[in-house]
Amino acid sequence: MNIALKNFDPANFSFHNDPVLILEQFWSQEEMATFRAAMARSTWTSLADMPPVARAFQNCGNWLKSEIRPDEGNHFIERVGLPCVADYVESFPNIKGRHINFNYYSYGVGDCLSTHDDTDNAYSYAEGKKPPTRRLALATYFHEQWETDWGGELIIYKENPTSNGKKQLEVVQCILPLPGSLAIFSVPRFHRVCRVDQLAGDHKRLSIAGWFMTEH
After folding, report:
1. 139 contacts 20 by C-beta, under 8 angstroms
2. DSSP H helical segments within 24-69, as ranges?
3. Domain boundaries 19-215, corresponding CATH code
4. Where are the beta strands (DSSP E) in 56-180?
5. Spatial separation of the C-alpha atoms in residues 79 and 58, rounded to whole Å
6. Rounded CA gap, 204 and 197, in Å?
7. What band does 124 get if pLDDT is binned at 50, 70 and 90?
């Protein structure tokens, strides 16, 4: 579903029926400015300085990642914790723990994220520690403007079987990183972030992304 927040009826939406939700105009201008200011104060870590992640996402530029402060994170979770999110997460049996993991991201010219389905936790957790299961992935955008020619789209695929038994990926969603928009989709689901084009110049693709997770 792709719809403006003001027209969205959360009572009639379920990720079991529609695995991808795109809400446009989710954030107010004041909220976006607040998060941009928080990002400006943040300490960023580049992809090159995260060796396990860099090995998992080779030739993806050198995008930046930063932690969200608790006060900013609390407001974020209050806003994105929609009833349909809670309903989907709670629909899985035998839950003994619930987890979230969200961070700031900054993508500049040449940065991208190669195709993955969010099931590979090897680079995120210590060896021997079983990670929680990612149930819903989220990406939302806080830059002031973004032009179509600048790239950075979120591409979502579905898997189609082929005659040789292998699966072929088909594009089902091309989500522009529109300022103030929010995308949530169920995991596992193959997706990627397109490379930011040189036409973007000094503009940065600013986002918060991460997961709602369960422990069993």
Report:
1. no
2. 29-41, 51-56
3. 2.60.120.620
4. 64-67, 97-107, 113-116, 133-141, 154-161, 167-175
5. 33
6. 11
7. low
